[in-house]
Write a structure and sequence with these properties.
Number of helices: 7
Number of strands: 12
Helix content: 25-40%
Radius of gyration: 18 Å
CATH superfamily: Aldolase class I
Order of helices and strands: EEEEEEHEHEHEHEHEHEH
Number of domains: 1
Bound molecules: iron/sulfur cluster
């Protein structure tokens, strides 16, 4: 099932001759996308390991570092029964697993993490083997890696950080990289949107700075304001605060949505 017109794989086979054999992956499963503008779509998720950032709200800390540990695979959705395979996982093994757990109601192959752009060359190789729409979830911290995948990603979900997320010691550089990554995917024709996690302490200023910069590219790029799932010392934003944040960003962008993590509400992975 292709829910967006996705890109033909054949044309791009000849552009990257650099072979990357394997990647560190923490888990592979079939579930429902619970964030952003494609909330509710079934996806096969590949959660890559490794991330250079350290956001305070990170809900996948196990994926932040590359380990020689095992990759967990849930062959039957929602059973919680995982089989472990050794890391790193090679292209042939991953392709076989994806074909095994793909289903008629599944719409996209979700490349998530950790930071999947670390594995841009591996993903490019994988793209030659599987013919499903590619949904990328990235912090956008590495535009050079993003550029390698610009013509094969169908949907780019870019998690833009606020200074309060403490993702890095050099916020300005990260912000610049995130904006460049958004521009790369947007100009390449991917369905591109932003997600920003907000909490009880989030103020308008930093969110407005993001909205303003993105509006210079295109004011119709969707901005999803994602209320943090309480934990890590962070509280859900107050309803009136959420409205204020939406109005502040709405001064610059026309498509502002508040979407919580619904997979957690449904008890899904
Ligand atoms: S970018 Fe994502 S994986 Fe990396 S630390 Fe932040 S929330 Fe965690």
């Amino acid at each position: 099932m292709a829910l967006v017109g996705f890109k033909s794989h054949n044309f791009f086979y000849f552009f990257n001759f650099f072979m990357v054999e394997s990647a560190y992956i923490s888990e592979i499963f079939n579930s429902i996308q619970g964030e952003g503008i494609f909330t509710g779509i079934r996806q096969v998720f590949i959660r890559f390991q490794g991330c250079p950032l350290h956001c305070i709200y990170c809900d996948t800390p196990v994926s932040r570092t590359q380990t020689v540990d095992m990759c967990k695979v849930e062959y039957t959705p929602c059973t919680g029964e995982f089989r472990s395979i050794p890391n790193p996982v090679d292209i042939a093994t991953l392709t076989e697993i994806i074909e095994n757990i793909w289903s008629a109601g599944t719409g996209h192959l979700s490349l998530t993490g950790g930071e999947p752009l670390i594995y841009a060359d591996f993903i490019d190789e994988l793209f030659r083997e599987v013919d499903y729409p590619l949904y990328l979830e990235t912090s956008g911290c590495n535009p050079e890696q993003a550029r390698k995948l610009q013509y094969i990603i169908d949907i780019a979900s870019c998690d833009v950080k606020l200074p309060e997320h403490n993702a890095t010691s050099d916020y300005d550089s990260l912000f610049e990289s995130e904006l460049e990554t958004i521009r790369i995917f947007y100009e390449a024709g991917a369905v591109t949107f932003l997600k920003v996690v907000v909490s009880r302490t989030t103020k308008k200023k930093a969110l407005v700075a993001i909205a303003k910069k993105v509006s210079d590219l295109d004011d119709t790029i969707p901005l999803v304001i994602q209320p943090v799932t309480p934990g890590y010392g962070l509280d859900y934003p107050l309803p009136e605060q959420l409205m204020e944040l939406m109005d502040a960003a709405g001064e610059y962008l026309v498509d502002i949505r508040a979407v919580p993590q619904i997979h957690k509400m449904m008890g899904l992975l």
